[in-house]
Amino acid sequence: MSPTKYAGVTAAALAGLLFGALLIPAAAGADPDAPPQPSAVPQPDQQLHNATYRARIDGVSRNAMVSYKIDDNNINSANPTMLPGRVFEATGVVSNPQLAGMTVSIDWPYSANLHCEILVDDQIVAQADTWIAPRLTRPHDDPTYGSLACGAPLSPGTGPVDAAVPPQAPVEPPAAG
């Protein structure tokens, strides 16, 4: 069979398969006896709020991670390159300003000043600062070492975080002596 005839036969077979697929009814994916599932789409009378998340890491660190709520039920994470003075900014939409939350963290053994703030509809609703001191070993008794929480907790059931967290005093290294 010549290449021209072979291409014509292949095109005709493909057209037949596609046409045949259009004639076969698709199987229904919904269970008619199942109760309706709640919709993730906001209700028409529910007002949504724009949340802006800002994070800054002043110091030299690696593996910076910023996690933030992009809506009431979903969390997004980013690993930005955070040089001193650089500000990470992201946005989300929440139904209640008290649901906006984020966490900023750096990897051990680095040290830095961590800063985060959350704006909802261009008004600051939460901000926090902390100093992460350098360590020679990874802390086994403090799973949140190297991180700063701001606003609502990202994990469900962990309780509320104060909306306005006062800045923490820097941790001074022990005196050598």
UniProtKB/TrEMBL annotation:
Residues making up the signal peptide according to the UniProt record: 1-30
| Residue numbers spanned by region Disordered | 151-177
Please note every region of biased composition (Pro residues): 167-177
For this UniProt record, the keywords arranged alphabetically read as follows: Signal
Please identify the protein, giving its name as recorded.
Uncharacterized protein
Taxonomy of origin reads: Bacteria, Bacillati, Actinomycetota, Actinomycetes, Mycobacteriales
